[in-house]
Design brief:
D-Maltodextrin-Binding Protein, domain 2; 16% strand; alpha/beta; six-stranded mixed beta sheet; 2 domains
């Protein structure tokens, strides 16, 4: 083989190696959140930009022009590889993530930023090993703002005020609690609450303060009773197809987790916390609207009525093989308190 042929082969090999080293990985993100949503603006878009920048352009995350599949089906979209990354609300698939429901227990925390960080830390340390998120790589966990009591006709000042009220309920895990409070739970997405309330189909909603502003609910649900620790905080997750994750180098996996994980939990929770404060200020200034904190008697009644929710989760987690689930629930609440 002459020197020219050898040189050409060597150059081709080097080019191939260089191309492999600089190959671009394109990951598809299935987005169903509206433009301007706090999660997109504060977490997802910064995550996409950071991963591309820190990987030197090796990883590009492409936001697809429309959602792949249905909103409740986003987890399966990731499992099946129809998209590489998705954002899910666990409560949209009842019973699928029973261990994750620890964060949806009543009175866990008022600050969604603190709750999101604590949720990621405790779940990652104590519950992730039970492999609840099969078929995906769990990138981050967080919560939306805690649910409060919003009503149409009068404020809720005592537990009997809730009796018989038709209340919008967003997550399946809270249905038994809603019934224990004496209400009739109506399972509807937040996007339908304005119409349902204005037409008299519902008497109120278990919803975060943020929704009073973002969905203009204070116009139709002008009374808000704030529950210390919240009635529940909906659990959220960002997940990635396992095969797509495994195909990445260890270096690129580290870049993704540095941009996701606790950092993303803080971003999402912090975004909700800021939105809650803005909404409360606006509602307190609105003529005819009332924002009040539940008094001691109402809080005592709520704790008494809802004590079974925690007990039920502890039994369910123990049946799933979780070691000392009561201590895990306690640790979550203690961690939230330490961060608030």
């Amino acid at each position: 083989m002459n020197i020219r042929v050898k040189t050409a082969i060597a150059a081709a090999c080097l080019a191939a190696l260089s191309g492999t080293a600089n190959a671009e990985t394109v990951l598809r993100y299935s987005n169903w959140l509206p433009q301007g949503h706090v999660i997109l603006e504060k977490a997802i878009n910064p995550f996409i930009a950071e991963v591309q920048e820190k990987s030197g352009g090796r990883i590009k995350i492409e936001t697809l022009p429309k959602v792949v599949g249905t909103v409740p089906g986003q987890y399966d979209v990731a499992v099946d590889g129809l998209a590489d990354i998705t954002f899910i609300i666990m409560g949209y698939t009842p019973g699928r993530f029973p261990l994750s429901e620890v964060v949806e227990l009543p009175f866990v925390g008022d600050d969604p930023e603190a709750t999101s960080i604590a949720y990621w830390r405790v779940y990652h340390d104590k519950l992730e090993k039970y492999d609840e998120f099969k078929g995906v790589k769990l990138l981050s966990l967080s919560v939306a703002a805690p649910a409060q009591i919003a009503t149409r006709d009068k404020p809720v000042t005592k537990i009997d005020d809730l009796k018989g009220l038709k209340m919008r309920n967003p997550i399946a895990s809270f249905i038994p609690a809603a019934e224990a409070m004496g209400t009739v739970p109506i399972n509807k997405p937040i996007s339908e609450v304005y119409e349902l309330a204005s037409s008299g189909v519902i008497d109120g909603a278990f919803a975060p303060m943020d929704s009073q502003k973002s969905f203009k609910l204070m116009d139709v649900l002008p009374y808000m009773t704030l529950v210390d620790g919240g009635l529940f905080s909906p659990g959220l997750a960002v997940v990635m197809n396992k095969a797509s994750w495994d195909a990445l180098s260890a270096e690129d996996q580290a870049i993704i987790m540095e941009a996701a994980g606790e950092k993303m939990a803080r971003q999402i929770g912090g975004g909700y916390a800021a939105s809650d404060k803005v909404a409360r200020k606006e509602m307190e200034a609105k003529e005819g609207a009332v924002v009040q904190e539940a008094d001691e008697a109402l809080m005592n009644a709520l704790h008494e009525r809802l004590a079974f929710v925690r007990e039920a989760w502890v039994k369910k987690a123990a049946a799933a093989g979780v070691e000392n689930p009561a201590a895990i629930a306690d640790e979550l609440q203690a961690t939230v308190k330490s961060l608030q």
